[in-house]
Specification:
alpha+beta; globular; Alpha-Beta Plaits; 4 strands; about 25% helix; two-stranded antiparallel ribbon; about 60 residues; binds iron/sulfur cluster; 2 helices
């Protein structure tokens, strides 16, 4: 599973980091996505909740 993140579209609500911290992380100021750290349906649910459509499930 691959996730595309569009920094320009992101409103930086931080919603996904709160919703699924094992997958969506900020480390040393860098945004990191590790989709394999949770079940696919959980990750897809968080993507759907992104308020600015900055996250896309691409694979
Ligand atoms: S949930 Fe969407 S808008 Fe919020 S920080 Fe993540 S990508 Fe950005």
């Amino acid at each position: 599973m691959k996730i595309q993140w569009d920094e320009k579209q992101c409103s930086h609500s931080g919603l996904f980091v709160k919703s699924l911290p094992e997958v969506f992380k900020v480390e040393n100021g860098q945004f990191i996505i590790e989709p394999d750290k949770a079940a696919e349906n959980e990750v897809v649910n968080v993507i759907k909740q992104c308020p600015s459509s900055a996250l896309k499930h691409i694979d």
